[in-house]
Design brief:
five-stranded mixed sheet; alpha/beta; binds beta-D-glucopyranose
């Protein structure tokens, strides 16, 4: 089955048709800058034009960088505040003219993909996926089952919000050397593992493509793996959320 996977981010909206059996992207992904201001109406229009680029009329799964409850956006750390309370699922159903639309937190989407097809495949126990990009996103899995909407990028670290000092955006904004950023990220990982004691941490998001710059500089006690699907995880996992619950879980594939 093919689903159009969409990954809405703070800086770009990306999408491609995905095989929900294999997690493969079936065409070159399309990337469009996130409209500024990133109002919900502008985002819906951008998603519609992305779907149009593929002539898409089938099911659509969308990852969005916020808490999503029942299709409704509940927070807005890296998008315009007017998104709070917006029923994104209903708006996309109407705009795209299909009932088969699912919406999920972006990090949860990436985690679903990694647990089903990537670094977390078959791993028992507690798996935490952390996406490092404009924000710090988290997805928590217990024996392959997602605990949705964890927002552990917002925990306090040295008196500040972790996302504000240890995201990729913070590294760029403050012009940090990789060594300096890695020190902060290492402190973040240690705080997280003291709170959750996961069995595996998977690091994804745009930064996972630069693993060689920082992996040797972090030393949590938990085994750490880079995301195997890199930036495609967000698109592939978003596609899964268009499926009924029974089809997409347990996330562990045999
Ligand atoms: C948001 C999360 C999101 C993460 C990564 C955070 O600022 O609160 O919902 O998953 O950024 O985009």
């Amino acid at each position: 089955m093919e689903v159009l996977g969409i990954d809405v981010g703070g800086s770009a909206i990306k999408g491609a048709p995905v095989s929900v059996e294999t997690g493969e992207l079936l065409a070159e992904r399309v990337r469009i800058e996130t409209p500024q201001p990133s109002t919900p109406e502008a985002i819906v229009e951008t998603i519609a034009s992305l779907a149009g680029r593929f002539g898409w009329e089938g099911p659509v799964g969308c990852g969005f960088p916020a808490v999503i409850k029942d299709g409704v956006i509940r927070t807005a750390a890296n998008v315009d505040a007017s998104n709070i309370g917006f029923d994104l699922r209903a708006a996309l159903r109407e705009r795209l003219g299909t009932g088969e639309v699912g919406v999920i937190n972006d990090a949860d989407a990436a985690g679903l993909a990694e647990v089903r097809w990537g670094a977390g495949r078959g791993v028992e126990g507690v798996v935490l996926m952390i996406t490092v990009g404009t924000g710090l996103g988290t997805a928590l899995f217990v024996d392959g089952r997602l605990v949705p909407n964890t927002e552990l990028g917002h925990i306090e670290l040295g008196g500040q919000e972790a996302e504000h000092i240890a995201s990729d955006a913070a590294r760029k904004r403050e012009n940090l050397k990789w060594k300096e950023w890695a020190q902060r990220f290492d402190a973040y990982l240690r705080t997280i593992e003291d709170l959750l004691w996961p069995d595996l941490i998977i690091i994804g998001g745009g930064t996972s493509k630069k693993a060689e710059k920082f992996m040797h500089r972090i030393s949590p006690r938990t085994p750490v793996s880079g995301a195997r699907m890199h930036n495609d995880a967000g698109i592939a996992g978003a596609a899964l959320c268009a499926l009924p619950e029974a089809l997409r879980s347990p996330a562990r594939a045999g």
